Amino acid sequence: MVIIRNADHTDLNFLIKIFTLNIPKYFDKTELDDFKKYFNSNNIETYFIIESEGKILGAAGYAYKNKQTANICWVFIDPDYHSNGLGTKLVNHCVDILKRDDQLNVIQLETSNLTYKFYEKLNFKIQYIKKEYWPNNDDLYFMNMDLI
To answer: In CATH, which of 3.40.50.300, 3.40.630.30, 3.30.70.790, 2.40.50.870 is domain 2-146?
Structure first.
């Protein structure tokens, strides 16, 4: 049985391992430090773990940019569990929470040419693309979901 729970500081080492398994395909090694800073900030309050039988399989979260805008961030799943709907469950969990905020107008995210179709299936729309933006020369896809 799969559950989603709030992240805890004791989860960091497990998440680093999973994050590293997604290098170099989905993340660049230089992004690991950015993830650690995010995780060790106040944003951990809105970061979630998906696990099965006590094993962490992935994580995702959100952060407010301002009262009207929130960002989905740091979504990743253990590669052994890709294409099992876990990422969908995590992102939908974040979106469901954010939709309860009456002041929020838009949920946005930055992703790449490798994963933008995943987010399109979840009703995020491409706003713009920056070619060869990421360290591994993948394209940046800036996407959002309007709530109004």
So the answer is: 3.40.630.30
